[in-house]
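Comment thread on ticket #2218

A.B. wrote:
> Attaching the input chain for the structure job we discussed in standup.
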Amino acid sequence: RDWSVTGVQTCALPISSGNAVTFSTMSVCTVSGSTVSVIGAGKCIIDANQAGNADYLTATQVQQAITVGKASQTITFTSTAPSNATVGGATYIVTATGGASGNAVIFSTTSACTVSGSTVSFIGVGKCIIDANQAGDADYLTAAQVLQTITVGKAAQTITFTSTAPSNATVGATYTVTATGGASGNAVTFRTTSACTVSGAKVSFIGVGKCVIDANQAGDADYLTAAQATQSFRVAKATSKTTLKLSATKVPYGHEQVENLSLTVLPQHSGSAPTGQVTISESGTRLCTITLASG
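C.D. wrote:
> Ran it. Output below, let me know if you need it in another format.
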């Protein structure tokens, strides 16, 4: 008996176990669910697995490999460079943040400044350049160097008189003047006007009036010329003292001898000769009057 097939019946079967594909990692990455996180440089290997069931075998593990490179680092200055830096002036504390390696940001300088740790000192006029560097490690690249530039100007100098001006200066007397200056090391020099003269630090009073002493100090490559300082005081007349020297010699006068009196005037100070008259007396009796004259 022949059989004929009058129809076709099909049966649908699942193509897999239906179990979830699970992921696992090793080395430089981790996985949570389907999210892979990179934690280091190197090879990230992701393992994919699927369990079997009554009808299906466990799936053959497959892997995905990812090459993970080192991450970059960035240095950022967090301190503001001073706008009024001067030689020998206030120091500057420099700060900066770096990348995730955790290595310290290291500073170095050139030219017009020095650095110790994070303290920058200004030692000369010009450009102070601060270099900031951060080393890398197994997972992070060395950071690109960054720079901070500061213009350093000349420092000011100040002159201070250290000697006290005389309060009783008189013509003919002298005074030693002293003063300190700025850090250039240049000498403080003095000059005078009017009633006095100066040689080095020795001031001589030559006339009645106001003695003005000017003190000056030159600058140099790192320091400005100091602002002029002055010291002034009055010079008064000197106390006059004149010594008279009287001598007598006998000279013939007719048939007699008489005494010829000679008077020598010795002034204490140089200048105009004393004038006036000198009366010579003996035992209250006026003998003669002499008129003083130069020569």
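A.B. wrote:
> Thanks. Noting for the ticket: Confidence is low (pLDDT under 50) at residues 1-13.
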